Amino acid sequence: MGSDGVPVATSLSAAVRESVGASLAGVDAELARRYPGDPGTRQPVHTVYVPADVFAADTVRMWGEQALDLLDRCAPDAREFAAALGLSDELAAQVYERVRAKLRREPVEDLRIDFEDGYGSRPDAEEDAAAARAARLVCDAVAEGGAPPYVGIRVKCMEAGVRDRGIRTLDVFLTALMAAGGLPDGLVLTLPKVTFPQQVSAMVRLCEEFEKAHGLEPGRIGFEIQIETTQAILGPDGTATVARLIDAAEGRATGLHYGTFDYSAACGVSAAYQSMDHPVADHAKAVMQVAAAGTGVRLSDGSTNVLPVGGGEQVRDAWRLHYGLVRRSLARAYYQGWDMHPGQLPTRYAAVYAFYREGFVAAAERLAAYVARASSDVMDEPATARALSGYLLRGVECGAVDLSEVTAVAGVGHEGLLGLR
After folding, report:
1. Which residue positions does the secretion signal occupy (predicted)?
2. For the residues of 240-273, what is the DSSP string, one character each?
3. Interatomic CA distance for residues 265 and 268, integer angstroms
4. Of the candidates 398, 402, 316, 404, which has an alpha carbon nearest to the alpha carbon of residue 87?
5. How far from 276 is each of 36, 194, 255, 381, 403, CA to CA, in Å?
6. Rg (alpha carbons) of the chain, rounded to whole number
7. What gap in Å lies between CA 175 and CA 221, rounded to an integer?
8. Residue range(s) occupied by CATH 3.20.20.60 in the chain
């Protein structure tokens, strides 16, 4: 029956439709399993990388204080910050105080205590003690309300020479967390230097066995896969490998993190040219992006080792480089990256805040038009509406824009945005 009440003619019976539906039932289930979509949870804008022997109870606070001190020395007001980064005065005025407030309130969104390259090879007793100590400090920070939203460790990889040590460190850390009260909600584990899906499967088995040992809900422990070997992108048979890594994680993979320097070196790129914007990096991240699309597994870009240290002009040069690289990543939908030094926090948040503040009004207006089905100069699809709501939510979650600002333009609040994401 048409909308005007007039019957419409068809040729296919209900039995035909039911037969087609039955034939595709397996495909429907496979699509739902493999491509569940965005998890709808907050994604941190960065991961701060701290060697395990350097990590201390006041690490997060000290990173924020050091970042503020550097701002005071090299860009004490919005005008000088604008000049340092090439921002307009108007945009710098919106961003600068928000950056300072963020550094005071929540300088680190995701902290990774490193037991791999940043820690190196130590006597077993020393690494055991460091893993247990890291767990105690994390538990104390969570209990006191001073932990970042996300925190965890990077263990040694699954290659034969360091496998047992990595497994033991993981076990010591997780066991100490359980003894101190349980796994924190924001726990994140990172598995580096993955080359074959079987290594991911091994990590899955470890998580399963730990959950069984402690009576945890199956699937409670997830982990990130660090993409820093060429084999993780292109397998020995010539096939793209990243999707197989995600599949091997059996739903436990939470992120793919690009390892700038290991991957570049593996491709033969000389040290002076190893960068987040090198063509080999762009290729790897494009493969990662397509493989992860729709799976709920999120991407993180890598880092730059050009640090903002030394004299004022040297700091500002490093800031401009970092700011530009972060903005480049954001434009390519890599919404997270790695920061290696407290001095990179001001430009991380400046780049993120500028990205969202420059675009949130236009995005909110387009979303309002979509929700109202109003006429506009852009006709958006449901997929674009999901992208718009995701963009606005990320801006709110990191502190770039206020929910009230978004709601005033888009006409929908937090629950409405989540419903469209």
Report:
1. none
2. B-HHHHHHHTTT-EEEEEE-HHHHHHHTT--GGG
3. 5
4. 316
5. 29, 19, 18, 32, 32
6. 23
7. 13
8. 46-347
**pLDDT tens digit string along 27-62?**
999 999 999 998 989 999 999 999 999 999 999 999
Q: Tokens 């997929």 sit at which residue?
A: 383
Q: Do residues 60 and 146 make contact, with C-beta atoms less than 8 angstroms apart?
A: yes
Cα–Cα distance list, 123 to 129, 341, 368 (Å): 10, 27, 59
> CATH classification of 46-347 is 3.40.50.720, yes or no?
no
Q: Is the pTM of the predicted complex or chain greater than 0.85?
A: yes
* CB distance 68 to 101 below 8 Å: no
Token duo for residue 228: 């820093």
CA separation (Å) from 190 to 120, 251, 252? 16, 15, 12
Residue type for position 270: S
Which one, of 131, 128, 109, 103, lies nearest residue 47 by Cα? 109
- Say if CB 182 and CB 218 are below 8 A apart: no
Rounded Cα–Cα distance for residues 228 and 118 (Å): 15
**pLDDT greater than 70 at residue 98:** yes
